[in-house]
Amino acid sequence: MRFPDPAKTGGPSSASSHVLGGKAPLAKRISLYIVISLLGTLVFVPGMTNSFLSDDWPVIARNKDTLPLHAGQLFKSVRHGWYRPVFDLFIALCWKLFGLDASLYHLTIALLYAVTAALVGSFAEVLVGSRGVGVLSCVLFATHGVHAEPALWIASSNEVLAGLFALLSITSYAAFRRSRRPLLWLTGAWLCYLLAIGCKETAVFLPLLVVGYDVWIGASATEATGWSKFAPTVPFLLAGLAFTAFRIRTGSPYPVSVGVARILINVVYYLAVECLALPDNYGYLTSLSLWRQSPFLPLLTVGLGTGSLGILLWGYRRFGPGRSLSEYDRARKFALGWSICALLPVVLTATGRTAFMSSIGVAWFIAVLSFVAWRSARDDQKARRAVVAALALFIIANLLVSSYRASCWRQAGHTMENVLSQLDHQLRGTSDDSEICLVGLPDHIEHAYTFRNAFPALARLLYPDRNMRAILDVDSTGQERTVQELGRMDVCGNGLVLWYDGTALERVR
Predict the structure, then answer these.
(1) Range 347-365 burial, b when 16+ CB lie within 10 A, else e
(2) d(Cα 445, Cα 449) in Å, to the nearest integer?
(3) Residues 406-417, buried b or exposed e (16+ Cβ, 10 A)?
(4) What would the pLDDT profile of 434-475 be if each residue is shown by its tens digit?
(5) Residues near 323 by Cβ (< 8 Å), separated by ≥ 6?
(6) How far apart are CA 444 and CA 447, in angstroms?
């Protein structure tokens, strides 16, 4: 692997000519990254099935009748504990276009994910004016192992949408700072920020990075002197503060009284899944059974991730200081700032999907780290080969994690398809008003969610005339139940009882 020489690609100083045209027009640059990101996204394609899973069902059920004329009300209120009007409208549009064809939802989200990865690479090039850093950032982000959940779970695609609009916002702001027609780009940056927080509240952190861009990157034809140069950031900051106050007043469905120890554990979790290639489903308190059954994969990927990151850090510290250009140091600080700030809204919880926004900064950080280490070690070919090998191992570790998690979501989808097919067969000949109780359905398959939260929305969408409910193999507290325990639970009344034994749905009463 060879990195382009900044002297040949224009170097950091030429970044301003890349934003709106010049030698590398925006459309041409984006098309390059789109191709790279589509190739990277292929790692998740095997996980796509024609199935809705878990929260997909209630998300679709509550938005299928939403119309554009409802947008005003959606933007003014919190629904079901969340403020996600843009995401709700997106799901409503998908319903109008695709109905119950889940494969088309998945295809749409995969394309949006590829565009997001392309923007990660494109903005990295804007930061430092280096095509090598941009390509690396795009590859690192597109193949990151923690992205399986947002890429493959429809209900979690709000992460992809929020990331897409956040990147469009910061890209537009960078264009504003380097443009002779700044008002159009600044307006676009403001609008995209509002759309980002309308997809998912966690995008509220972005104004901090808008200020960070002016502090660390700066340099523009529109730049004023002193404090006045920060005037364009004021609307971002006011919008962020107003939205934060609004969400504090409306409350959160998640507990907010989390102790310091738990927060520290959550930070370690994010560090492990984002930087050390730990499969996200192995980082939960309920994952002990996974470690006992299949410890090899996480030990392998964490070993590869830790070792490769250690080599990259060594290369940067050994060759970078005093020899790397200040533009790369500023970009490194911006990337680290993005990673940290993006964790602030989600640090009270820890799931793989909520690492999505922070992983954007991680991709930039590792790309800059690798580029500086490789470029600065020009007189040490062994060190250069070590840097390239470490980078390759890091990508391989994440590809392994991505492939594994995609296989989990594929299995979850096939399980859903199998159960619904058997359910259709079992219901033939039964009266529409009979009560039906499904027992033992899987809550998840290695934390790829199947029937969690699926009922009663699933029943309303597929069996609107049936009185149907489900008892999963995990109770409401998250405790796993054995077959015998579920059998002793008096929960099904006197109606038809269907038991799922892991492969077949059998009528037991």
Answers:
(1) bbebbbbbbbbbbbbbbbb
(2) 6
(3) bbbbbbbbebbe
(4) 788 898 899 999 999 999 999 999 999 999 988 888 888 875
(5) 376
(6) 5
